[in-house]
Design a protein that fits this description.
Elements: E1 4-9, E2 12-17, H1 29-44, E3 50-55, E4 60-62, H2 67-70, H3 76-95, E5 100-104, E6 107-109, H4 111-118, E7 121-125, E8 131-133, H5 147-155, H6 157-166, E9 170-171, H7 172-178, E10 183-185, H8 190-202, H9 219-222, H10 225-243, H11 248-262, H12 265-279, H13 283-300, E11 317-320, H14 324-335, E12 340-343, H15 347-366, H16 372-380, E13 382-385, E14 396-399, H17 405-416, E15 424-427, H18 434-438, E16 447-452, E17 461-466, H19 472-484, E18 488-493, H20 500-517, H21 521-531, H22 537-544, H23 546-560, H24 568-575, E19 588-590, E20 596-599, H25 618-638, H26 645-656, H27 665-672, H28 674-687, H29 696-704
Parallel strand pairs: 2-3, 3-5, 4-6, 5-7, 6-8, 7-10, 11-12, 11-14, 12-13, 14-15, 15-16, 17-18
Antiparallel strand pairs: 1-2, 8-9, 16-17, 19-20
Helix pairs in contact: 3-4, 3-12, 4-5, 5-6, 6-10, 10-11, 11-12, 13-26, 14-15, 15-16, 20-23, 20-25, 21-25, 22-23, 23-24, 25-27, 25-28, 28-29
Amino acid sequence: MSAFSIAIDNGVAVVTFDLPGEPVNKFSKVVVADFVTVFDQLERDTAVTGAVLISGKPDTFIAGADIDEFLQFTSPADATRESAEGHRLMDRLEHGRVPWVAAIHGACLGGGLEASLACAYRIVSDSPRTVLALPEVQLGLIPGAGGTQRLPRTVGLQVALDMILTGKNVRAKKALQTGLADEMVHPSILRDVAMRRARELGAGKIARHRPHRADAKGALLESNPVGRAVVFRQAREMTMKKSRGHYPALLAALDAVAAGFHGTSAEGFATEARLFGEMAFTAVSRQLIFLFYATTALKKDLGVSGAAPPPLPVSKLGILGTGFMGAGIAAVSAMQGVPVRFKDTALPAVAKGLGAVREVLKDRLHKKQVTKQQFEDQLALVSGTVTYTGFGNVPLLIEAVFEDLAVKHAVLREAEAVLPAGAIVATNTSTIPIRQVASASRDPSRVVGMHFFSPVHKMPLLEVIVTPRTAPEVVVTAVAFGRRLGKTVIVVNDAPGFYVNRILAPYLNEAGTLLDEGARIEAIDQAMLDYGFPVGPVTLLDEVGLDIAGKSGSILAAAFGDRLRPSATLGQVLAAGRLGRKGKQGFYLYDEMGKKGGVDESVYAVTPTGTRRTDVSAAEIQERLSLAMVNEAVRCVEEGILRAPRDGDIGAVFGIGFPPFRGGPLRVVDTLGAAEVVRRLEALNAKHPGRFEPATMLRTMASSGTTFYPKTGKPV
Ligand code: 3H9
């Protein structure tokens, strides 16, 4: 069955792309061959004067090239050939007899956008579902079907570089403003308007090749070679600074764009094809493609084994605790149109919480992501209270009160006295085992953990924690609700620290132990930034709060003994009254507004080695911290905290910022080989007894030569 159907109406061919049996349209080899047949047929049919490319899928236009086929490339030359074939097809689309109009509704990504750029005219629907992007760098690749050449020509160099180097989504309105789209219409008239424009193009009423708009942003700077050189230099510097050289596709994409400006058009396309081939074979690309598959697979996992019951509809949310976390959860829920009843014990706390909700929502208004009306509607969804009025019809309650078991038990009992029968109680705790919270419930099977990360509106991960008693319906409801809030959700089994904090603990402890031994704060942070983390561990301690880190550390030490004992430095610095950023005093200096400055040298006086500091190599710091985390992640698989290695890697990347180009801690094991990880851990354990004893599972994997993920084919 062909992916394309043709309907010809008065000289205009409407070509509908609807890949049978697939949720999205993608360009595989077979689909491309199909398209070539359609294209040739229309080129030959002289009665056809214009064509429209439209999607038959409800919410995607075209998701790009078929990523599954990238796994079958046998060499860089193979991938380069694929790119060159893409070029030939796009060239025919651009210069053939028939002018094409892209009628774009839904996601138009990668090769989908590249095909649209080769069309003579692009119309976007004004739906929020319509987004355009070249996300190839997020897969460690560069656009390979002409994107690095046609996009700058269409929207100018600066807008194009911004899109190509970030892979970010551009909404319809922005597409129109930048010249990426020629016209924006309501989805209901997209097809009709596209047909009209195709007819006008065919009749010469609209020029097929229109120049880049001279009024576009940055056009003046880009109009001469010196200005362009400035733009390229700045982009290169910025890219190196942000990526620390870990993402080769970024520089390759810049080189491909530059080749099109510095040489002939043919040289530009040839450079793109060559670099696409090279990037398809980098280790980084393999890890990023793994993350794509892992996140996609997670979207379908409802967190229970076997048949999943349907999630309960959450028509209203109750939140207890109007602090920073509660306010964040209230704001993201309101963004999704969920009414929120927001309770604390005193009016000033409620007022402060509502103010925090307002700030988060207002930020979106400032960024023009919502209209004034939408902002007001969302704000109106959150109502504050100091009593339990309005909780009688709440199907889901999220408790985000102070991290103290007695307080949590007290509010749980109070709330359950008014909640409807069967209501779900989710506790947003980062440290207290869920079964302990649930022990005070009238029905522990309705209690689940929902560990959000701070700030809630920015952090992509939600860790749902289940106890042996949590009912499947409760699990799927928590997962579905988290996903509705736009979160990537992993489901883990209940244990101290759950998963994310459990693997963070040895990492932070090791940073503290290095400080105990006399390492310098900036050396530790710099080493881990260079490893690829977004912030250094000592900065992270200040951010999290030393009191919170101390509390979480002692819970984990109590559960797991010396292996997870916090450093002496943490205890002493905390005892000296330093709380980190929130107290404007920690390992770093903070100004009155809380802005971070350099290292606070006076903190060394309250560490075991005092002001005598020693040089520790970046390699040693990286090895100790990363392997402490990797080893603990393996233990979480071994102990069944994790339901799948996939969740461990996603949790580390999305929850802690584990470097995506490394794929995650368990991917590190597969990359190095379990035997090599065991060897390195043993060497560390010899020097630092007790902290690096390899997980039993690692030893087993080392002797059997097994890996967490399949060695060939789809990684998940
Ligand atoms: C490219 O275009 C290179 C070119 O420049 C040059 C070539 C020479 N390929 O995410 P969902 C599958 S690189 C293969 O759950 P949603 C996905 O795996 C490509 N499969 O839906 C899943 O499969 P399954 C650049 C793909 O509605 C199913 O479709 N493009 C592809 O939440 C449903 O996906 C991208 O990077 C693909 N390209 O989100 C776009 N896309 O059912 C990547 C989707 O077996 N895709 N699948 O688990 C996305 O961002 C999202 O999937 C999308 C839909 C927004 C499209």
